[in-house]
Design brief:
heterodimer, A: MetI-like fold, 2 domains, B: alpha/beta, Rossmann fold, 6-stranded mixed sheet, 4-stranded antiparallel sheet, 10 strands
Chain lengths: 252, 247
């Protein structure tokens, strides 16, 4: 009941937006811009012939690979930079310069290095998501409260225990925040990457629909599906935030 | 002598000005003795405790523990502070196990025993944010005691608790100390707490601080802080702190 109370207003707003869209298309007698009904029909058509699932699968596979590699790279590096001052002062300026470069700007170079194909898209996703995760992990280590580090030193525990039971769990909430940001950016970038010379994925699906006879109902369908999957991915990351071991950070 | 401070000095650099915090401070603590240190706020009590516990080096002078100079913190003396440092990402049980090396015989049973000792039985699998302030303090004390330290360094340990809980925790501490004889160094701004708990009370002067006066507390436990002797002592200490009060 409470859940319904929370979601009801957004459902109403969404319904109103769809109604306005529908009315505007009918009112302007647009021949190109689709009505919601045509978008649903287009989606069903793609779902039935199976191509929709293939595109979704390709996009998710690319995000999974690029993001997964970025996680494997960023978290150890971020932890290291957080603990070792020399590593931080050496690498941080470089990452601060690389970070604001839009992943889109990397497209020519990624094609040059990896050619046209999956590797190129995966590289772009890696580049997009790796920096926010490095930065958040490092910040997480730097903001561990001194009283906890002192207590750990006081008990004189061995290094591996110090790392596994203090540094890592103390940083985990920030790592998860970094992963949330990273995955969000990765999903943004996969669509852009697929618009350039790839034969599958949701980004390709959108460009293909436009190029193959102005099928704008499929363009809009693709956009909405991208939005819904993005929401779902963020929801999965939010599940990580509700783990008991990090609840202390989010509880208040 | 368990702990011996010899001519400890400490100053900080602040806005390019040298701020002398501790000037030539010396005192001894006997094995098993409970010494309370009281002083006006801002006189450098916490700095002093951090130096004694080994977290901060003095500018000059030395801290001798068991006849050997101490430079680093170690598990022989555990620091308990006002803020507390129970790890919020570990359960009560995991916190108690934290300081116990893996090869400790019966470490699980030991953790259980100390959870029981401080009255946390049944809460071993709770996370700290699920506990009250008093329970958190009990957990911190248990985590310190389970590693069998010889010394407890307590820096305003109960100041964040309400008055009633603070008094209850003081009684708990006395009950535990009666069972396991530790050397305790307590820093507090609460004179009554010091009179209630300590064998000896040192009064610090304002900054730069040094020992201004020392009082032996010869009252037997359990003490009544409202007794005339205790009150007379309290007034004498307050007088040293520059607070005139009539009983």
């Amino acid at each position: 009941m409470n859940r319904l109370k929370h979601t009801l207003p957004s459902i109403i707003v969404a319904a109103v937006l769809i109604a306005v869209w529908w009315l505007l298309v009918v009112y302007t007698e647009s021949r190109i811009f689709p009505t919601p009904k045509k978008v649903v029909e287009g989606t069903l058509e793609l779902a039935r012939d199976g191509s929709l699932w293939e595109h979704i699968g390709s996009s998710l596979m690319r995000v999974g690979s690029g993001f997964g590699l970025a996680v494997l790279f960023a978290i150890p590096l971020g932890l290291w930079m957080g603990r070792v001052h020399g590593a931080f002062v050496t690498l941080n300026p470089i990452f601060q310069i690389l970070r604001p470069i839009s992943p889109i700007a990397w497209i020519p170079i990624s094609i040059l290095w990896f050619g046209v194909g999956n590797a190129s898209a995966i590289y772009l996703i890696f580049i997009a998501s790796v920096f926010p995760m490095i930065v958040q992990t490092t910040v997480g280590v730097h903001t561990i409260e001194k009283r906890f580090l002192r207590a750990a030193v006081n008990f004189g525990v061995p290094r591996d225990k110090f790392f596994l039971q203090v540094v890592l769990p103390a940083t985990l909430p920030q790592i998860i925040t970094g992963m949330r940001i990273g995955l969000g950016v990765a999903w943004l970038v996969v669509v852009a990457a697929e618009m350039i010379a790839l034969r599958s994925g949701l980004g390709y699906m959108i460009m293909d629909a436009r190029n193959a006879g102005n099928r704008y109902e499929l363009v809009v369908a693709g956009m909405i599906i991208i939005g819904l999957i993005g929401l779902m991915l963020d929801g999965i990351m939010r599940l990580l935030e509700s783990m008991k071991i990090v609840r202390w950070r989010y509880a208040h | 002598m368990k702990i011996s401070l010899q001519n400890v000095r400490k100053s900080f650099e602040k806005d390019k000005q040298r701020l002398e915090v501790i000037s030539n401070l010396s005192f001894d603590v006997r094995d098993g003795e409970f010494v309370a240190i009281v002083g006006p706020s801002g006189c450098g009590k916490t700095t002093l405790m951090n130096i004694i516990a080994g977290f901060l080096p003095p500018d000059s002078g030395s801290i001798i523990v068991d006849g050997a100079p101490r430079t680093e913190p170690n598990r022989k003396g555990i620091l308990i502070t006002q803020q507390g440092s129970v790890f919020p990402w570990l359960t009560v049980r995991q916190n108690l196990l934290f300081g116990l090396p893996e090869q400790t015989p019966d470490r699980e049973a030991l953790a259980e025993e100390y959870a029981d000792l401080v009255g946390l039985k049944g809460f071993e699998h709770n996370y700290p944010h699920e506990l009250s302030g008093g329970m958190l303090k009990r957990c911190e004390i248990a985590r310190a005691l389970v590693v069998k330290p010889e010394i407890l360094y307590m820096d305003e340990p109960f100041s964040a608790l309400d008055a009633l809980m603070s008094l209850r925790m003081q009684n708990e501490l006395l009950r535990i100390l009666a069972k396991e004889k530790h050397t305790v160094l307590l820093i507090t701004h609460d004179v009554e707490e010091a009179v209630h708990l300590a064998d000896r009370i040192l009064v610090l002067s304002p900054r730069p601080t040094s020992i201004q006066a020392s009082f032996d507390v010869k009252l037997p436990h359990p003490r009544r802080v409202s007794s005339p002797e205790a009150q007379a002592l309290r007034v004498a200490i307050l007088k040293e702190l520059g607070v005139a009060e009539t009983v």
